Amino acid sequence: MSDQEENERDEMAKAEALRRALADADESDRDGLAELAESLRAAHAPSELSQKDHEEILSRALPPAKSGGGRVIRVTFGVVSAMAIAAGLLLYLRPIAPGKDPASEAPIAWARSRSTAPLFSEPWKRGESTARIDRIALAREHDFRENRFNSRLAAPDRTRGRR
């Protein structure tokens, strides 16, 4: 018997073993070559995943669900909600300090909002939009500064730390 015939018989025996390994349902007998062949076949033409394989993949990928973990979240939300309601009630029902009447406090004299119409006596001409915008900005800047000055005089503690 020649080397070529011996190699052909050896290849035929290995091919038959591979065919049996692929057809065999028992996965304990599989060798590395059979697993590679099945992986290649699944990559080329995937088949339907069995329920058993699906459950096995899910059990490896997902940790088991914990029971009772939502209790802490529900208690936390309940406590925070109760505290928020209590704080709201305190703010709503809090008595006014004696000698302080909120209605007697002087209101802040804000500059009233205005139209830009009095700033311009003639109709606008093309090409003069920059000058028009500058006049509007100067007038609004004056109102803004007046508002800031008035608010600092009326309530100095409310504007402390703001700039």
Characterise the protein shown here.
This protein has 163 residues and is mainly α. Among the domains are: 8-46, no CATH class; 109-163, no CATH class. It contains five helices and no strands. It has helices spanning 3-23, 32-44, 51-61, 70-93, 129-154. Helix 1 crosses helix 2 (32-44). It is elongated. The termini are far apart. The model is unreliable at 158-163 (pLDDT under 50).
Helix content percent band: 55-70%
Taken as a percent bin, the fraction of beta residues is under 5%
- Net shape: elongated
Question: What number is the mean pLDDT?
Answer: 76
Major beta-sheet overview: none
N→C terminal distance: 101 Å
The overall strand count is 0
Please state the structural category.
mainly alpha
Order of helices and strands: HHHHH
Unreliable stretches covering 5 or more consecutive residues: 158-163
**Number of helical segments?**
5
As a whole number of angstroms, the C-alpha radius of gyration is 42 Å
Task: Give a short summary of the structure.
This protein has five helices and no strands. With 163 residues, the protein is an all-alpha fold.
List keywords for this structure.
mainly alpha, single chain, 163 residues, 0% strand, disordered C terminus
What's the structural blueprint in terms of helices and strands?
Layout lengths: L2 H21 L8 H13 L6 H11 L8 H24 L35 H26 L9
